[in-house]
Specification:
It is a single chain. The chain is mainly alpha-helical. Helices cover 67% and strands 0% of the residues. It contains 5 helices and no strands.
């Protein structure tokens, strides 16, 4: 059936939430944590085109290092748990069960 809702996994996530929504939230959180590096890179790039590749290499490297150190399995698990908790709270407000339907 083409209109069926994708089943929930045991953690309460649909595939699209796991592969798109949670990673987007993790990236936003990492950007907030690494904001000083992001701003330094953005400031360096402002007004540049092709020259930003070499002119802003140090800022880009520092920003990416911050992202690599920030986006850990622990952060992903934390953000996944936060999303599931928020999703369940929203479903409860609507009076909908947050668990997968039983056959």
């Amino acid at each position: 059936s083409g209109n069926s809702v994708s089943p929930l996994k045991p953690d309460g996530l649909r595939k699209v939430e796991e592969s798109v929504v949670v990673p987007k939230r993790v990236r936003a959180r990492a950007k907030a944590i690494c904001i000083d590096y992001v701003k330094a890179f953005e400031d360096c790039c402002r007004g540049r085109t092709l020259s930003m590749v070499w002119a802003c290499r140090a800022q880009n490297t520092a920003m990416n290092k911050c992202f690599d150190e920030t986006v850990t399995p622990e952060l992903i698990a934390e953000e996944t748990a936060r999303f599931v908790k928020e999703k369940r709270a929203n479903l409860e407000k609507l009076g909908v069960s947050g668990s997968a339907p039983t056959p």
